[in-house]
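Reopening this one. Same input as before:
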Amino acid sequence: MKFENQPSYSLGQRGPNKDTLAGESGNVRLVSQSTLGEINRGRVLQALYDNGPKSRAELARLAGVNRTTITGIVQPMIEEGLLVEGDAVPSDFKGGKPARPIYFNPEAPMLGAVLLLPGRIQTCLVTLSGDIKALTKAQFDPHGDRGAFLAIIKDTLSATLSQAHQAPFGIGIASGGMIDSDNGVILAVNLAPVLTGLHLVDILQAHFSLPVVIDHHPRALLVGDRWFGPGRGQQNFAAIYTGEVLGGAFYIDGRVYRGLAGSGGELGHTVVQIDGELCNCGKHGCWETVAALPWLRREAARLGFANPESVTCARLVKEAAEGAEAANGLLDRYTRNVAFGILNLQQTLSLNSYVLHGDIAGGGADAAERVRQHVERLVKKRPNQEISITLNGIGEGHTALRGAAGLVLSSHLKLVI
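Same output, byte for byte:
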């Protein structure tokens, strides 16, 4: 078996945080041997995603450990059929035993993935190397009957899963709204009330007899970025999504940040304008009220744009490039409004790296550069601090589906992500 070469990145050297012993009334948290094993497995897998096929010796060099340690990590995954050794590569001029690169087994079970947004469903199979297969799409009434919705999502998933050559490891769901990822419940979706309070994980597990995990849509985008996109090799960054709503997620010190029961990332409802416009969440001045498509289209209508309901960041970039002053002005305000929220994140967390998704990413390099310039003008920078604003060129749907698959993979292997 032969593998194609892929870009090279370094394997991070960050180890588990050193244990801190608290006082008599405090809690003492130690890293268990099983947790340490999960961390190491995760880093080896991430090294393969980041660097492409690598031999045991190459993985050992990247990790700064001996080959025996690497073999102890990868051999169980080879025996399980997750990884496979390729054909021996002739040694270099120094001689030595020919190396056999290790990579993901193309014959391994695939991962089921679902992207669930108001009115829209996408399902697919994802290989361990990130290829998307059997993509199926459907629509549902976000204000309709719950039974009708469940019939649609089951039929859509069945159409996808029927194309798997063997039972998938499980199903990962990236869902809009407020998600309790610990209990598998969609707590609330303002734009799709039919989903509010839905115990979707229990329902799909019972129907398909497969493990099911669910997480917030922007968090799945973040996982997709980390495993397959611009977040590869990074230890700190954020994913920012704009569309009908606004959301985000954080990767901090080598871990996906999750609050209690999967909370956190409700960035659209952080307040950027005290006593500002009423948000659909019931509060005033949320970031979402000035940096998402509803605001953009209302402003376009107020300014007299033709077909304001079809205005997007991509359209504004195109019209601005053609010399339309109104489009240029609205685009500048929109990117500034997106930058204000990133400014607050930067001042609070100093992540330095932000990956744009959704409508704002549709504006391409022009929109990203405008956002970056606004952030640069607004932020109080530290010496030698570089702030990166990038796009995920894979596309929001594929990134979220790959991220949903990554949730399944991390759950199946008990990886710490």
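So the earlier flakiness isn't reproducible anymore. For the record, The longest helix spans residues 325-349.
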